[in-house]
Fold these 2 entries.
Entry 1:
Amino acid sequence: MLSWTRGYFEGAGIVQPRLEAEILLAHALDVDRLHLYLSPDKPLSVEERSRFRTFVQRRRAGEPLQHLIGEVTFFGLRFRVSRDALIPRPETEELLDRTLRLAARDRELHCLDLGTGSGVIAVCLARYLPRAAVTAVDVSTAALELARANATLNDVADRIEFIESDWFGSVPGQFDLVVSNPPYVASSAVDDLAADVRDYEPRVALDGGEGGTQAMGAILSSLAGHLSPGGCVLFEIGDGQGDDVSRRMHDAGLCEVRIDRDLSGRERFACARGPS
Ligand SMILES: C[S@@+](CC[C@H](N)C(=O)[O-])C[C@H]1O[C@@H](n2cnc3c(N)ncnc32)[C@H](O)[C@@H]1O
């Protein structure tokens, strides 16, 4: 079954056909992948075959693997995923890593995750910064529900305040760390994204308006009054947006502005500090 599925997926241009076949078979059988190697000759029941075949067909039709499995691992923690929020990406693990390295551990920190989606950033901040008070914001009610479920799954629901808001619109208070992976695809480029992104991810999670930097512009224009003295702002950004975001950060009165590249060498992170 695995050999056949590998070929079938390869024909559809799936990049890791054997791996995805194994993941889906293990999911259909409700076992982990190692089990497939421990019992390679186990015959499948009619129900198991039919469950696997359904997953294979849905994947071949373009549905993301993560939606079929219903969960991902992000920064060492498990998260539920669905069509209500963006599937978390590896670049965002890098954003989180940079945020954690900036975070003081010797005092209580107020952290804000703007555009929390599935809640990965907020939940990880709460888990890895035990003294942090975390606020998670999204404009999407459905995404916030998913984020709440993920906070419960990771035992940090009592450490995160969830707010439905258009960026800072309904968010009170000041924060030491403001992190955001906002929508940053230029509106004109959304229809050209790969089908498994364009057709399955919420548009509100992708579309960053003209040039892709409008969401960051909106956040920065209402940042004043929400950043503690000397507080940090970190964004995930798109390749080629560094100059624009850097200018917007300077215009917002931020200092120590830096644009950094991700592991694949693309401009991906913008970081700045507020005046002390
Ligand atoms: C790129 S996704 C990031 C999701 C998650 N933080 C992650 O890194 O996987 C952007 C998120 O911003 C939210 N969003 C878009 N416009 C917003 C707005 N005006 N106010 C608040 N959140 C917004 C979307 O609903 C989406 O969940």
Note: Residues 28 and 53 are 9 Å apart (CA to CA).
Entry 2:
Amino acid sequence: MGTANDYILTAKKLYKSYVYKGGRVEVLHGLDMAVKRGEFLAVMGPSGCGKSTLMHILGLISRPESGVVTIDSHTVTNRNRERTQLRRTMIGLIFQRFNLISVLSAENNVNMSLRVRGIRPDGRTGELLEALGVAHVAKRKPSAMSIGEQQRVAVARALAHRPKVLLADEPTGSLDSVSGHALMDILKKTNRDDGQTIVMITHSEELAGYADRIVYMQDGLLVDHN
Ligand SMILES: Nc1ncnc2c1ncn2[C@@H]1O[C@H](COP(=O)(O)OP(=O)(O)OP(=O)(O)O)[C@@H](O)[C@H]1O
Ligand SMILES: [Mg+2]
């Protein structure tokens, strides 16, 4: 058994349902999870099972109906200012539908994300774009990039401030197989060399194979994959 400090991210008894016109769907049913410091975890499960819902809760974008999330031993509260502060310092997010700012170049999308965190942009932006194979679009706006290029810029943006936890929702969803593996190599490298903790949702068994551990979402809970 590890101590609480071995875990950078935990969730306890998360419940979440959506109410919409004509119905209610309960997505998370008391979900528990614990991610170790430096771990690369893959989350798999069928479409609609609640993976993105979980990701948005862990990323402090949405709130569970009940349950507790801790990040680096901080218990997440309902207070907006605290949540914003934790999100900015601790979390890097890559969404399933990445949303770069359309009026900014690739480079400025990354730099803007640093500035809102009070970090002065430096050479790291260019290095990340280079490492991700998108240095050639650094000065272009998203509308002048391919979908895969936009996705890789979104990865650079998520990593730029060196978040404690990188949450990636199908980061390779718009990439061809070669670019997908190239991106996994980059994530694996940041995981191994910088100790970057990563939680990644994927539909691909092959890409999940880059992770240290795979969990499967089933009936609103996570079960170990075997
Ligand atoms: N705003 C909403 N209102 C009502 N239902 C919603 C809402 N958002 C999600 N859902 C439902 O909640 C369930 C979980 O959605 P979620 O996006 O978390 O699934 P997912 O596992 O990420 O799926 P995918 O693999 O397709 O991305 C789905 O059944 C979906 O229809
Ligand atoms: Mg999803």
Note: The pocket of adenosine-5'-triphosphate (ligand 1) is lined by residues 18, 20, 25, 27, 45, 47-53, 96 (CB under 6 Å).
